[in-house]
Amino acid sequence: MEQIITEPVTPGKIVTEQTQPGKIVTDPAAPPAPKPKRPEVVIRIKHASVRFNMAGEMVDNLKEYFVKLVKRELRFKEFYALKDINLVIQKGESWALIGPNGAGKSTLLKLICGILTPYRGTVEVKGDIAPLIELGAGFDPNLTAKENIFINGAVLGHSRKFMKEQYEKIVEFAELQDFMELPIKNYSSGMRARLGFSVATVVDPDILIVDEVLAVGDAAFQAKCRKRIKELLSRGTTLLFVSHAKAPVMELCQHAVWLDHGEIKKLGAPKHVYWAYEHQHLKRQPKPEPITTQRGENDGTDTDHQRSDTGL
Amino acid sequence: MKQYWKLTKERIKKFFRYWDLLVLLVQRDIKMKYRRSFLGYLWSILTPLLSMAVMAIVFTKMFKRSITNYPLYLICGNILFSFMRESSTQAMYSVIGNAALLKKTYVPKYIFTLSKVTSCMVNFVLSLGALLIVMIATHQPFQWMNLMIVVPIFELYVFCIGLGLLLAAATVFFRDIKNIWSVITLAWMYLSPIFYSLESFIESKENDVITVSTLGLCIRRFNPMYMYIQQFRYFIMQYHIEMVEVPWSVLMWRGAVCAVLMLIIGTVTFNATKNKFILYI
User: Fold this and answer.
1) Which residues touch B153 (CB under 8 Å, ≥6 apart)?
2) Residue A3: its pLDDT value, please?
């Protein structure tokens, strides 16, 4: 397990140093990671299926409901967003969910968060979840950033006392000290993302769920976020990560799941899963070792492309 | 059975975990309600006073008869009924209005409904200031008994939570309930003795035997709002007419039964459907 952790972290360090050379020195090093003696299962999904009703048109009012009831037009078309998913995730692991749009990645995350309940099968989750599914979803546009920090913290289950203690830390991490009295509606999406990330990671959550959100902030903040996630990982947080960009997945994750049409296609180390995924979806001739750094080094022609790829 | 207890214990624990969220949401609602208004919280007192004034002017000639201190009679019924109407309407939007949040994170959904009803309750308590003003202006003597109003208020609060949960759940599936509900509350208002009294339903009065028409009987028997409003009026202005109004002690337990029943209906409906909300919001 130790081996796997160190592997993806090393290429990442290069990136952070490139984008933010000063930060690494100033930030205190993460405390030594308490390594669990025996792997502890935090998420156990057994034969889980999620079913949606995909009626031709959604009936959401009484009038239509009765009209259709009388006309016998109340049809229910089943649609399985997830089919018989089996997944066991242990404490401290970092998993990437990859797959095309509509493959069921977000559905799986919602299942783990407890937003959705499985139609069949069971989902067991141990510990606190900090979801970053769309940062700042809980923000009220009319309230100031400060008020929103407290509400968002409460949504995540933190007490007010705790949030008061952590407030300074949150603002500092978001680097938004001057905008705290501004209503959120005047915030840009990037600023909102900063705030959301800061609130969600203020404590070490047992499970951190990051869904395609790091793409909003600027490069420097993205690097900061990745650094924070790595810190959390080293302290035993379990990470579930969804991204369409390959570089951060390679950097942060030890495991990957490839979902397609609600089914797990492949499960394993990110590079193997990506290899299979790219092989099928991008209809590209896959290279035997499709890691970007290698390609860049070998060709020399591809460097520009590679840089933008890792800079994500 | 053991499993049931475990579940209940877990639920209670969860409720306390989100207690701060409830408090913050209530604070937010109250803050937002009067943000950027010149008179601010004063509106909570002014609105019932003004509506009472309008009703008093319109209805004084029509229903005066035996009601002494008609303005006070009006405002008692009015603030209680508007609390019910406000809280149920607000609660109706509590789940669909927070769709963005509920789709993204796990939060117990009833927290939003509860917070709406509670913020309306806070607003109602503020509007008691209007009641106080009317009591002083009309020289209504204060008594220790006035404090008993907490009983009908609490009963109504529980009743409204139940009603709110029921409506919040129903609105997720049937959006047009909000249109229907405004009509229902209108009908409910006319069927509650807010600006008239049950005295108007007296059909005959022979040798101390008073007969009340069927509609009057129905209101007296089945309208929960009557139970709360009449109790409230009794404690504030000792309004009671023998043989017409139900004595307060009877109303107190009837009101409690009604409130608990509504709470059970609301909770059961909400609980049974809450896992499907996500598919409709």
Assistant:
1) B124, B228, B232
2) 39
- Going across the sheet that includes A41-53, the strands are A78-90, A41-53, A120-125
Token digits of residue B143: 């008594």
Residues of chain B positioned with their CB less than 8 A from the CB of A60: 173-175, 280
Number of domains in chain B: 1
B37-93 confidence digits (pLDDT tens): 777 788 889 999 999 999 888 887 776 566 788 889 999 999 999 999 999 999 999
Task: Assess A117–B contact: CB distance below 8 Å, yes or no.
Answer: yes
For residue B111, being part of any structural domain is answered with yes
Q: Find tokens 């309230």 and name the residue.
A: A143
Q: Where are the domains of chain A?
A: 2-125+245-310
In contact, B107 and B21? CB cutoff 8 Å: yes
Q: Has residue B1 been placed in a domain?
A: no
- Check the CA dihedral B267-B269-B272-B276 and report its sign: negative
Architecture of the domain defined by A2-125+245-310:
3-Layer(aba) Sandwich (3.40)
- Angstroms from B28 CA to nearest CA on chain A: 8
The C-alpha atoms of residue A226 and residue A197 are separated, in whole angstroms, by: 11
Q: Is A269 on the interface with B (CB under 8 A)?
A: no
Collect all residues of chain A within an 8 Å Cβ-Cβ radius of residue B177: 61-62
**Domain of residue B131, residue span:** 42-280
Q: What is residue B39's DSSP assignment?
A: T
Are B104 and A156 in contact (CB < 8 Å)?
Answer: no
Q: Is B25 inside any structural domain?
A: no
Q: What is the pLDDT of residues A205-225, one digit of tens each?
A: 888 888 766 666 778 888 888
CB-CB under 8 Å, B101 with A142: no
**Which residues in chain B come in under a pLDDT of 70?**
63-66
Looking at residue A141, its pLDDT comes to: 82
pLDDT score for A22: 37
Whether residue B14 lies inside any domain: the answer is: no
Alpha-carbon gap, residue B147 to A290, rounded angstroms: 77
Q: Which three-class secondary structure state does DSSP give residue A118?
A: coil
Chain position carrying tokens 């969220």? B21
DSSP 3-state of A140: coil
In this complex, do B20 and A129 lie within 8 Å of one another by their Cβ atoms? no
Give the ipTM of the model, two decimals please. 0.78
| C-alpha to C-alpha distance for B75 and B47, rounded to whole angstroms | 11
First to last CA, chain B: 34
Cβ contacts of B221 within 8 Å, gap of 6 or more: none
> Which candidate from B23, B104, B180 shows the least CB-CB separation from A137?
B104
* Sign of the four-CA dihedral A273, A278, A280, A284: negative
Q: What is the pLDDT of residue B264?
A: 97
pLDDT of residue B170: 94
Q: DSSP states of A163-176 as a string? A: HHHHHHHHHHHHT-
**Most confident among A77-81, A114-118, A286-290, B221-225 (mean pLDDT):** B221-225
Neighbour-count burial of B183, counting CB atoms closer than 10 A to its CB (0-12 exposed, 13-18 middle, 19+ buried) = exposed
A160 touches chain B (CB under 8 A): yes
Residues β-bridged to residue A87: A45
